[in-house]
Amino acid sequence: MTLLILIAFLTMVTGAFLVLDVSPQYFAETLAQPIQARKPTMRKEIRATVQKKKLRGIRLLIKEARDVLEITGRSAKFGVICLLSLALMMLGALLAITMNNLFMVPVMAVGFSLLPFWYILFTATSFKKHLNGELETALSVITTSYLRSESIITAVDENLPYLNPPVVQVLESFLAQSKLINSNLRSALERLKGKLFSKVFDEWLDALIACQEDKTLKTTLIPIVNKLSDMRIVAADLDYLLYAPVKEFITMAVLLVGNIPLIYVLNKSWFHTLVDTTPGKLILAVCVLVIFISTAAVVRLMKPVEYKR
Questions:
Q1: pTM of the full predicted structure?
Q2: Partner of 108 for a Cys bridge, out of 96, 123, 175, 257, CB 3.0 to 4.6 A?
C-alpha cells in the first residue's frame, strides 16, 4: 500500500512539471536560491550594510559549493548538482517510507539532498592546495618583476607565459581590462579581488593598490607572498592530522550501521523491537541524524589552512 501511494505521488509530481512546463533542473536551481523576503525598511537596509549577517547552515553550504564550482570553472554544473540533490532527497524519503519509519523521512530527505554539496567541498581541498601552489609561484615571479620595473602591467605581461590555470585566466582578464578597456590600474586591481577566493591574494592586491600611490611601499609585497609558503609548509605538516577525523568518522559510522544486522543475527526479537516499535524507530532516526551531522563536521574540518586578516 505504501509503495502504491508513493508511485501515485511521483506520478502527480511528474504531471505537475509537465502541466506547468517547468524543468526539474530549473526547479532545483530555484530552490537553491536564497528566499527573497519582502522589501526591507531603510533602517533594516542600513543595519544590514553596517552589520553584515553571515550565512549559516544549509545556505552557507550551498553558497560555498557554488563558489567552488565557479573557481574551478564548473559553474554551469550547479544546476545539475541541484537536480541531483533533489533526486537524492526523493530517494532518501523513499528509503525511509520503505522502512515504514516516519521519523526518518525528514532526516533521510535532508541528509541525502546535502550529499552532493558535501562531496564538492570535500574534493575542493586538493584544488585549494593546487591553487595555493600556483599562487605562490605566480605572485613570487610577478612581485620580483614589479620590484625591478615598478610597472604591474609589465610584470604580469612578461611572466604570463609561465603561469598556469586558474591564475593565468584571472591575470589575462586584468591585462585585457588595463590595456584595452580602462587604463585606471586601481579600478582594474579592485576588480581582481575575490576572483580566486584567496585572502592572501586579496591582501597582495590591497598592497599593490597602495603601491600605485607610493612606490616605496613595494617592499610590503614580499612578506605577503611569503605567507603562501608558510601555508604550504603548515599544510604539509598537518596533512595527517586533517585526515585523521575522516578515518575515525568512517570507522564509527561502519560500526554504528553494522550493529543493526549484528543485532538481527544475535537476537531477532531485539531487531524487531528496534525496527518495528516507535521508540526503536526514533532511535534509528537519531542515529542517522548523528551520522549526517558528523559528516558535515568532518567536511568542515577538512578545509585547508588559510591566513585570516
A1: 0.67
A2: 96
